[in-house]
Amino acid sequence: MDDLIGRYLELGLALGRHIDGMVDAYYGPAELAAAAASRPPSAPGELEARARRLLADLDAPGELDPSRRRYLRAQVQGLHVTAAKLAGQPISYVDEVEQCYGVRPAPISEDELAEAHRLLDEILPGSGPLAERYVGWRESQVVPPDQLGLAVGSLAEDLRERTKRLFGLPDGERVDFEQVTNEPWSGFNYYLGDLHSRVVINVDLPVLSTSLGHLVAHEAYPGHHTEHSRKEASLVRRRHLEEETIFLVGTPQCLLAEGLADLGLEVVAGERPESMVASHLVPLGIPFDADLAAQVSIAGEALGAVRGNAALLLHEQGADPDVVVEYLVRWALTSRPRAEKAMEFLTDPTWRAYGFCYIEGLRLCRSFVAGDPARFERLISEQLIPADLRAA
Hints:
The protein has helices at residues 3-16, 30-38, 44-59, 66-86, 93-101, 110-123, 130-139, 145-167, 209-219, 224-238, 252-269, 274-281, 290-299, 306-316, 321-331, 336-347, 355-369, 373-379, 386-391, and strands spanning 23-26, 174-180, 187-193, 196-202, 246-248. With 392 residues, it is mostly helical. The longest helix has 23 residues, at 145-167.
């Protein structure tokens, strides 16, 4: 293993001793993980210095392929920010997001959100305040708990076949789905290596039929599991790019992973995938009006960026958390329990800057793909950084 690669893996594992969840996946050399776990956590200042030295060495001439070196440098830049924060060095929230993930966060205008509200007001049935009608409609789309496993399995089978036809999947890949509670996110992919993912769905709050197709596509096919398993097969096993055996929060790797995963459903099922989703849910007796769901999705797409505004309000402007919850309730048209659940994510030390991976990641990946499946295949096959997508 190249010395630079080994140092990168060791640095990521060492930072993971300080930050729960930072090492999202690791299936590299077992001896590196064992060594990291066996010794006391390194001092944050030492980790910051190691990251700084690694950045300098990546900038110096060497034998490592230039494109590989460029990818690693972007990754290590994110690790350096994380280490510097641990060591007590000050950094603004927007600088943290930019230096970790490769994009400068910006709020969505409230005029744009107000226009989304106007469109939704025209579409949603009934009378009365928009927020009450929107929340009421969404909460009427609950997947019965005893049907959730069947619905997930049916959607996953269809999405797997579509993904396989379009892009191919490595022989032996598999996904196991489970339900969990007491987590700040709605779903999570634990990539275990050996082409195997454990996907968990959080049932703290009722799972909605309007988000289930996206959730399965995002975490499994053609999202996280597809990217991980294809890269393990092609980049790790065939090309021996060992840096791909670790997936680290706080790096540009995450922004592209979340962006492509959010884009995945429309890539394999069409720009309006609601009829496909309905074909799996309606036979199970799960409420899902494909036409209305499509109209609401189009009209309310801007609401997905409200969480970015909320993060900036909380971390950049120092707003009181209760004020931020009320902001989410007002502009995201969400219930207070769901707004409070979103705040768990925004205030979690591991995930506080991560929300922009979805917002900016989707914008960047959608612009890059521009409806071309071949470009999406690049996202799930190659080592790319945000600057590559902007330059394409």
